[in-house]
TrEMBL record:
Gene Ontology biological-process annotations: phosphatidylethanolamine biosynthetic process
Organism: Aspergillus nanangensis
Listed GO CC annotations: mitochondrion
Keywords: Decarboxylase, Lyase
Domain L-tryptophan decarboxylase PsiD-like: 35-93, 95-134
Superkingdom field: Eukaryota
Gene Ontology molecular function terms on file: phosphatidylserine decarboxylase activity
Pfam families with a match to the protein in the record: PS_Dcarbxylase (PF02666), PSDC (PF12588)
Protein name: L-tryptophan decarboxylase PsiD-like domain-containing protein
């Protein structure tokens, strides 16, 4: 059996036709209105002649797989419809494993020197005028007006600004003075572990809940697994990162690391797959169902025993969303961290985080949802002692 036929066979163990084949057929039978992101891709293909030519050529090439085993993608319009179906349903777990392998391969490329070729000022480069403005605007929170070179550890005179790969650029570090630690000697001040916009705060957390619906509930057991009991009835705050944000994590408190663990999750999964009657404009939005993603996405848990007894144990949960396949923890169980120390990072794409407090811990002054991005290591909340 060839490698390709073997991979196709492994995609489905119980059904006569693999998951993706059924989607290819369904997309041909019942085309739907494209998700806005796929409309953008369609416009890009149709507006650039060379790109259009390459897509047409790719999809017109003879395939070396029997059509009775694997149906063809007829053209790029059909391909877009297939993607439209895929992003609105969860894959079976065995398919998810293969998706992870593909994303891991892509991730390895993004860490290679060859991936730095778009780190330039060309029209499609990450340092063209528009992109550079977006990057510096995202990095200047409040009244600051740093340049990119002043914000981040880099060298604008060097090729690719000194970044050795695209991932090195994505996980770039701030220059220390641009992100001071709020009240470093005051253990009642909790700092933001990530550079992120406020998404949601919830108290009196349930052990399990309907996290897949839009009302933004959190299901602690699904999110934290065996570490959930400590936080049932407690409080969670969630922040949402954008692609232009800083993607490293920093300790929100000082204390000892009790646990570090990464839970595998699904990729490109949205509640639209579970609720086909959701309006098209929301069924595929990752941010709209950020509570869903905290239970279904790949996520890393870091549990910290706070120096401040009024805080008890605090859980930081980093969640990879959509295609993000890697949440990297850079500390280990037993380590001691000071507030503001680096503890890990996201790779490759947009993401979110949650921070949990135990029942009975009086934590106040979280930022309002809809307010501006909270800088990493800036004040996030305050614990109140009676």
């Amino acid at each position: 059996m060839s490698g390709r036929h073997q991979a196709l066979t492994e995609c489905s163990q119980d059904e006569p036709s693999p998951w993706v084949y059924d989607i290819i057929r369904e997309a041909a039978r019942e085309p739907r209105e494209l998700h806005p992101v796929l409309e953008e891709l369609k416009h890009l293909i149709e507006s650039i002649p060379r790109l259009s030519m390459l897509f047409r050529s790719m999809l017109q090439r003879p395939q070396d797989v029997d059509n009775n085993i694997m149906p063809k993608l007829r053209n790029y319009q059909h391909m877009l419809q297939v993607l439209n179906f895929i992003i609105a349903r969860p894959p079976p777990w065995n398919v998810n494993v293969i998706i992870k392998k593909l994303l891991d391969t892509w991730g390895a490329f993004l860490q290679s020197p060859e991936s730095a070729t778009k780190l330039n000022s060309d029209p499609d480069g990450w340092f063209n005028d528009v992109a550079l403005t977006n990057l510096t605007t995202a990095g200047n929170i409040g009244d600051t007006s740093y340049t990119f070179n002043e914000l981040y550890i880099c060298n604008s005179a060097a090729p690719h600004y000194g970044f050795q790969s695209w991932d090195a650029f994505f996980t770039r570090r701030f220059r220390d003075h641009t992100r001071p630690i709020a009240s470093p000697d005051d253990d009642s001040i909790i700092t933001s572990p990530c550079e992120a916009a406020p998404a949601h705060t919830q108290t009196d957390l349930n052990p399990q809940d309907t996290f897949w619906i839009k009302k933004q509930t959190y299901s602690v057991t699904d999110m934290l697994g065996p570490y959930a009991p400590k936080f049932i009835g407690g409080t969670v705050y969630q922040g949402l990162l954008r692609v232009y944000n800083y993607h490293r994590w920093h300790a929100p408190i000082s204390g000892k690391i009790l646990t570090t663990i990464t839970f595998p999750g699904t990729y490109f999964s949205t509640p639209g797959a579970l609720h086909p009657n959701l309006p098209a404009e929301v069924s595929g939005r990752v941010a709209t169902f950020s509570g869903y993603n905290t239970a279904m996405g790949t996520r890393s848990l870091i549990l910290i025993q706070a120096d401040n007894p009024a805080l008890g144990a605090v859980a930081f949960l980093a969640v990879g969303m959509a295609e993000v396949s890697t949440c990297e923890i850079t500390i280990k169980e037993g380590d001691y961290v000071k507030k503001g120390d680096e503890i890990g990072m996201f790779h490759y794409g947009g993401s979110t985080f949650c921070i949990f407090f135990e029942k009975g811990i009086d934590v106040r002054e979280f930022p309002d949802v809809g307010s501006e991005t909270v800088a990493v290591r800036a004040q996030l909340a305050v614990v109140v002692t009676s």
